[in-house]
Structures are given as C-alpha cells and as structure tokens.
Amino acid sequence: MVDRTLEIQEGVQSNIAANEWMNWLGMNSTGFVMNSTRIHYPFEMCTSSWVSWLFNPARSEITSLDSGNIDDILNNADVALVNFYADWCRFSQMLHPIFEEASNVIKEEYPEKNQVVFARVDCDQHSDIAQRYRISKYPTLKLFRNGMMMKREYRGQRSVTAIADYIRQQKSNPIREVQDLEEISSLDRSRRNIIGYFEQKDSDNYRTFERVANILHDDCVFLSAFGAISKAERFSGDNVIYKPPGENAPDMVYLGSLTNFDLIYAWTQDKCVPLVREITFENGEELTEEGLPFLILFHMKDDLESLEKFQQEVARQLIGEKGTINFLHADCDKFRHPLLHIQKTPADCPVIAIDSFRHMYVFPDFSDLSVPGKLKQFVLDLHSGKLHREFHHGPDPTDVAPGQPIQDLASSPPESSFQKLAPSEHRYTLLREKDEL
C-alpha cells in the first residue's frame, strides 16, 4: 500500500481538524508527520479517498443485515465483522470506504463462502438490532464467530491494513500443538493455560475445543497434544485440564462432555476470565464501556501479596456483587495520575478505591481489608449513595457516636479519572451518558 497525503491548502478550512483525524484513526502522536501545509498519513485513508468513495463506491461484498437475515448469515459465518453505523454520523461516513476496501483485501485471501463475512447494520432503520447488541456509539465494529458475538469489539486503527491484519489474526490457529509432553512442564506459569489431550485431531471433541479456543484465546493460552504424544494423559479418554497461574497451583480437570459446547465453554470461561482483572491502557476503553463502576486495587507490580489478599477478599465478600461492579487491579507506576486524583502516590500503595465514573472514593485503610464485611460495606455504600452523600454533606448522623458533635466535613469528592479512558467523542458519536453516582 502506498502512503496517501491529505493536503490542507493555506487559507482553506479543513472539515476535520488534524487532531480529530488522529483520534478517529486511533493513532497516537507519533502516528503521523505534520508541517504547516501537509499532513502525511502512513495509512490507506484520507479525505480524497472518502470523497472518491462517495461518488465512485468500490465494488465490495458488504452484506446488509436486517431482522430477516441476520441470524442466518451470522450463524453460518466462521468469522463475521459487523459495522453498526448511522448514515448521519460523520465517523460512520468516514469508515465506509475503508471497511469496503478491507473487505476486498480479505476476500482475496479467504475466497470461500462464509470463511469471513463483512456486514453492516443501519441502526436508524434497524433500531431493534442495535438494541439487541447494545450499540451505544457509532460506528461500532463487532466480531462474531458462528453467530456468537465476541466480548471484545474491534477498537484498533481505522485503516485498511489494521482491519485486514485484525481479521488475519482472528483466522489464525489459536491452539499451539505440542510435540513432546516436556513442553508442558516448561510452560509460563504466570499465564492461564488450557491443555487438551486428544486421540486424534479429526474428532468432534477437538472441534469443540477449537471453537472454545477461538473465543477465549485472548484470555488463556491453549495447547493440544495428539496420538502417542498425549496417550499418557488419556488414561480415561480425551482429556482437558486447566493449569492456573503459580508454580505450585494444582491442575483442574474438566469432567463434562467434550462435545457439549455450552458446558465446556462455561467451564473454560470461568477459568480463563479472572474475577479480578488487570486494567491497562490497552483494555481501559473496553472496561469503561461495560458501564459498571470500578473497585480498584492500586499496587506495585511486584507486590503480589497485596493482590492475592484483595483477590481472596473479593471472592469471599463480593462474589454476589459481580454484576454490579468491576473488580480490577492496576499498576501504581503506570496509573500515577488516578492516584494523584485521590491525593496518593505510588509510595502509598497498596490503595483501594472506587471510581464511579463521576467521582473517586478511597477505602479508608488497606489493613481493614480482611475485616469481615468491611469491603462489602464499602461497595454497598456506593450503591446506596452514601459515599456520594457523605462527600457532599459530611457523615450521616447515624454514623456519629452518641454525644459526639457532628462536624461539618462536607467536601467535593475527587473527579473520576478512569472516565477519560471511555470512548472518545473524536472517534465515535456517543448515544448515552451514564447516571451520576
């Protein structure tokens, strides 16, 4: 692909400012070179290609989805990338030519029907489909495998190269085949490993295992062994085990039917997706868009003891709150800015805080983490509005000991820091706002 250039003539207003182009493309400040008259984009997209597409649309096989065909098309597609858009949204308009050109590129590499499907949904005409998939911004690119929507949508750069590379990655084999069981003993035990031992590759058991791996390969490492290599681990038939993180952590064996996709998927997801997840700058947008407040442990990267305590107490006290708040941990050094919002530094870590996307609230004392019910009450106080109320109006009278004067401790809580990781208005047309907590 050749680099294309967007000319900005002196004295002529550009429709889209340079920084908006950068944000829309998903580029950082090093993604392009700029001078006073010209911006060089190292990607296959510019205003000229957009205008050209409007008048000379490229031939491509983009399937338009509606309520009558969506299930049939998606269910029969190995991989489908669906563009949820609105014609009035300028970001959607800008994506159309790129999406179509990426479709053309991929079609040449995967020509067989249903190997890869590029599709689109006009959310104005089909609001029922938009509601079904909880579309909250335009454009949204969602990936489907055999009709099942993947949790992680496409959030990468909006260029032909980036989208095509993403599809190639999705089509690559997510399972590493081992040639000797000695390879298992040298696995990286900081990762979550799922290992399948099968008599043969051409089997229903392995095909089900492969379907699961295609969905969860971002969360676990998947490995397989066949025939004579795997025989020692198949004393009672084909076998799937989970090796959790930690050198001394015991293996866990899957005991259900290996051809029951729903059963093995649920078991594997439970093992691969931890209750307490790490937040990074790479997954921050995805996590904020889940719409749940954050309960975050800030800890030094090598402080695994505090992380283990936090994980244990979350499992012990808060398992019932799993659908109401996200349990996360963050590297103190990488997330210095949120710490500053709550008047903390890495030297104060470990620190526990809640970010409601409006305000941040600090758990008073990390040493109280193991006090029965203490962490749970902190979360319940968020849901009841008590944390927000007390920040604005001081402690509730019921929390003051008899005879003790009520002090005016009202203050403004620190503003949310993690809301800045949410989808940007320079990249999407946002359709909703979260209520204040």
Main attributes?
globular, Glutaredoxin, disordered N terminus, 15 helices
Note down, in words, how this protein is organized.
The structure is a single chain. β2 and β3 form a beta hairpin. This protein is 32% helix and 19% strand. The protein has a 5-stranded mixed beta sheet with strand order 4-6-5-8-9. Strands 10-12-11-13-14 form a 5-stranded mixed beta sheet. It is α/β, with parallel strands linked by helices and 437 residues long. α4 packs across α6. The two termini are 48 Å apart. The protein has 15 helices and 20 strands. The chain is globular, with a radius of gyration of 25 Å. The chain has 3 domains: 140 residues, Glutaredoxin, CATH 3.40.30; 98 residues, Glutaredoxin (3-Layer(aba) Sandwich), CATH 3.40.30; 146 residues, Glutaredoxin (3-Layer(aba) Sandwich).
